[in-house]
Write a structure and sequence with these properties.
5-stranded mixed β-sheet, 4-stranded mixed β-sheet, alpha+beta
Amino acid sequence: MLEKTAIKAKEKRAEKDGKNDEKKYKWMDDIETFNLEAHIFFDDAFDENKLGHVNSFVKTLIDVFQEVRGQFKMENSHLPRDSSDDNLEEYFRTPYGGRMHWKLPYGNTIIVHLKDKQKIRRKKRWSQIMYLYYILDWCLTKDFEGTKGSKEETRHIKKEAKKSYILVLDGDVDFEPEAVLSLMRRMKKSNLVGAACGRIHPIGSGPMVWYQMFEYAVSHWLQKATEHVTGCVLCSPGCFSLFRGSAILKNNVLEKYTKEASTAAQLVQYDQGEDRWLCTLVLKQGWKIEYCAESDAKTFAPEGFTDFYKQRRRWTPSTLANIIDLILDWKNLTKNNENISMLYIIYQVCLLISTLITPGTIFMLILGGIIVGFDVIPPWLALVLNIAPVGIFLLMCLYTSEERQIQFAAILSSIYSLVMVIVLIGVIQEAVDEGWCSITAIFLLFVAGVFIVATLLHPKEWYCLLPGLLYFVGIPSMSMLMVFYSLGNLHKISWGTRETESDVTDRNKNLKEENGYFCNFGNFITCMLCADNTYQKADFLKAIGQTRVHHIDQYKTTSTQTDQVHNQDIPSDTTEERKYPVFDESIDEIHNTEKEFWENRIQKCLKPPKEDKDRAENIKRKLFICMVYHRFSTLVHITANTPVWENEESKLRKIFENVGQYMTTNNQDPPKESAAATDKNRIVETVSFQEPKVKSMKRKAKDLKKAKDEYIDIAADIWLEQLRREKKQKSEEIPGPSVKRE
């Protein structure tokens, strides 16, 4: 279908220009005409209680496919019927679970790979490894007639990989064929482009989606565009990106991508943000990642406050880990990748520093807003009012469940939103009082002007500017509390927003039932107030979900009645067996050659890991220690550098100052009225008097700071040597015998 759309787009463009010269548009044939293969990799696709039976998610996919196919036949009933329509579905058993082949109009096929978590690794990164090996290893070599493992096969793979492009998608993404063609044109312009990403538009309903509309727009307008111009885009998102096959195969990028996380840092970098990790590997091998603004795609964004926080809990640490990895390896990066310069590295360092100091900056901004907005509150009380809830939230990140942390963060977010409104009013009032040439007014106009100018440069997306006020009032929550929450839950390695029902059930078993009154504002804020009454959590869930449960029950009742009418004479088990496949011994296996390929690949890197509780607890403990370090490192640093009492360093400094002062004051030239002969004896006495003093101070310094022994010895020896030289010089200048001092 994409191939037909590409040809139509080419003809339409030629007709629009009024030129049908085949030579002019001949170069477009190689770009926009291609062979398409569509694969769906379904994670955890089987029912745990019924062997070989697919779960409810796969059944939903089958129902949707049959519905769409039936609708297409009705709309195109005038077209001649294809003889291949008699066999539209094929099912096979595989070493990793099962496979479904669905034939589509125009000769295309969708292959659905059903993963069994008992046979192969689950989660998104391992699904990506599956299809990358399947496409770049199996599909490119299955028609090769030469010797397997030879140099000829290697050259054949490299040749085919240069012409192969992999479009990476999430299951909830919506896009037009023209968006894919735009990415392919971008890749065709330069052979150094290893990946390209488009403009992602969040869709959904509710305040959280409105916030993300502005956030995504600003991120693409400013940050991704800047990275594209000054160097390379650091992240090509896994929801909609195009990768070049040869970029994945170069220098074993794919082999490194299959590496299992063995340390706490690797767990954050590898599994919490797999798309960034893959892009980091591609950049290190010298490929460029570009941004194509004309390629639009839509994806469903988290609509609830909880889902949003859990999503960013993964994104924030992963982003920091990969940026730090690139910065630390800046020498090799700038050497291997000609598109990344030292200036670009400095730009990323500045962004990293600004990210780390943002929570403190927001804290001071809120403090200033309270002082400006409420004149009756003294500064010390404003500091206490601001630091108390933040401190409580930090303690909750250490000792309470993740659900309670998010609930308290929702309460603070609503309070801080009101504070930010007061801050905005105070800043505007101050700008008006001081005049529009004041620093406050210039700063306000500059911030607002940046977003307005960016909107004018993207007129088709003007509506993204409307939620800008919501983005402003949400700064404390998203730039301060979320950072604390992300770092405070580094030891939580679950995906968060893509858990199965069994995962949620197992997690809820460990939670204690808490009393309290719960309230919510749509899907944006959910909080608990007053934890002393008898209002249970189940009552809260029942209250907020009453409407949804009513609709679900009504839908189930209607569906049940409909099924009973249509299938009253057919047993339910027979209907289920006819409608959905069961991957048992009755279904054929895939070809032996491909079966051997999957068995070898599963044994090498895709085999489900054995549960190692000690290793998991060790990684969690390291992540927890890392989180505690980030929490209290600033406090320890401030305490260590605060002169509350006299420390050893200050004592040493005083000793050195006293030694220097004593030597300077006691080594003055003798008075003019003194006899010249007495200078020699005076010097001898001065040296004999000073040496014990210096040695005594030297012993005290050693006792106070043994680590500085060498420095003290050198300093004391230099001073003694200087005194002896002065003594010798003055002794040589004095003629005649020495005269004793009276």
